[in-house]
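SEQUENCE WITH STRUCTURE:
===
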Amino acid sequence: MYQAKYVLYFGNFKLSETIVTQWIIMAFLIIVAFLLTRNIQKVPTSKKQVFLEWAIGGLRNLVTETTGTAFIKRAPWMISYIGTIFLFFVCSDLIVMLGFRSPTTDLDTTVAWALITFFMIYVMGVKFKGMAYFKGLLEPTPLMAPLNIIGEFARPISLSFRPFGNILGGSIIMSLFYKMLEYFSSMIPSLKIPVGEFLIPVPLHLYFDLFAGSLQAFIFIMLTMVFVSGATQE
């Protein structure tokens, strides 16, 4: 039931529902970013700009406090990346309320995000420490190298399966709940409109899609910042 479905075909080239949904999310975020950043003034004169500066300031403070000022000075783009991946993650969970399948229920999506973090760790580690970064795999003794290498590969696996498992689990629970409501509705012939299927699941959607989705997104960006900044510190 949760296997990737192909919805667009161009000859032998196929696009899955997950990819199409991600394109929709990207288009939405691009349009919103364009509308929010129009007519920006040096001195805020609109509530829109005040809110935008407040949100970006909070994001900058969070990333700076987590990764350190020295790290941000050499990699200021980290603030934009963390903000982007967080918004994309949250939108990927909330889009379920519009009838789309969440991209995070596809392991390909979470693996791709985790691999970005995985390679970013080594790129930033080499940038800050040079090739001496890899000496950390031999600490505290060279005998620990195999375990250290296993630990390195455990990071992307953990980052991939944590959000995938949580979001997929919530989606399965909601699907079963809708099936149950559909069954109960069919037992009442006089009930022409399945009101229960519209109203009863709302609290569950708020928990599984809004709360749990936002929580998983926050955990993902925090682990990303901790892992990447940790690779640059002595």
Summary: The first strand starts at residue 6 and ends at 10.
